[in-house]
């Protein structure tokens, strides 16, 4: 089992309302080049399909009127956190996903007056063939955690939504 925890200070705590909205509407994923469908506010039991834009941060390439993206797999939301100073959610991957495990996305106001984004992931390769490439999987997981957190920081710096698609 690969365990990853990534924390990033993303700004002053007074940005929490914008950060809460971003994390509870799949904004971290969209900001990291992950396309989530269907696009709805996060809710317990929600099942989503994830696709990756391989040329992020640019728009996906198109062929015959379709975006060229990589299918990652499906997930189900297992927990939603929406508290006064913390917001986020956890999901579990479903069969057919590239990874098998859980991931948590959290933003919280700290007593220091700072806002911190935390990404926690526990997973193993989702297919026996991927087990041989486990070191690449771990590296990809770390890269994505950094992309999620950096996407939040950029959005808060600009003071705008991360959303790239209609909500």
CATH topology: Alpha-D-Glucose-1,6-Bisphosphate, Chain A, domain 4
What proportion of the residues form beta strands (DSSP E)?
A: 35-45%
Distance between the termini: 35 Å
Structural class: alpha+beta
Strand order of the largest sheet: 1-9-8-7-6-3-2
Could you characterize what this model shows?
With 167 residues, the protein is α+β, with helices and mostly antiparallel strands. The chain has a single domain, classed as Alpha-D-Glucose-1,6-Bisphosphate, Chain A, domain 4 (2-Layer Sandwich), CATH 3.30.530. It is 26% helix and 41% strand. The protein is built from four helices and nine strands, in the order E-H-H-E-E-E-E-E-E-E-E-H-H. The strands form two sheets. A seven-stranded antiparallel sheet has the order 1-9-8-7-6-3-2. A two-stranded antiparallel ribbon has the order 4-5. A hairpin with a 5-residue loop joins strand 7 and strand 8. It is globular and about 45 Å long. The C terminus is likely disordered.
Question: What tags apply to this protein structure?
Answer:
167 residues, alpha+beta, Alpha-D-Glucose-1,6-Bisphosphate, Chain A, domain 4, seven-stranded antiparallel beta sheet, two-stranded antiparallel ribbon, 9 strands, 26% helix, disordered C terminus
Topology overview:
Blueprint: E1 2-12, H1 16-24, H2 27-31, E2 34-37, E3 47-52, E4 62-63, E5 66-67, E6 70-82, E7 86-93, E8 99-109, E9 114-125, H3 128-131, H4 134-158
């Amino acid at each position: 089992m690969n365990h990853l925890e990534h924390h990033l200070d993303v700004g002053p705590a007074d940005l929490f309302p914008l950060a809460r909205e971003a994390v509870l509407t799949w904004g971290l994923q969209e900001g990291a080049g992950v396309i989530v469908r269907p696009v709805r506010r996060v809710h317990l039991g929600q099942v989503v399909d994830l696709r990756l834009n391989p040329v992020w941060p640019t728009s996906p390439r198109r062929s015959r009127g379709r975006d060229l993206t990589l299918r990652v797999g499906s997930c189900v939301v297992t927990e939603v956190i929406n508290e006064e100073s913390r917001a986020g959610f956890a999901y579990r991957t479903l069969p057919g996903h590239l990874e098998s495990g859980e991931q948590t996305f959290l933003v919280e106001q700290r007593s220091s007056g700072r806002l911190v984004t935390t990404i926690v992931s526990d997973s193993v390769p989702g297919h026996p063939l991927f087990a041989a490439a486990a070191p690449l999987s771990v590296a990809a997981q770390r890269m994505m955690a950094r992309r999620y957190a950096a996407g939040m920081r950029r959005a808060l710096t600009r003071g705008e939504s991360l959303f790239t698609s209609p909500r």
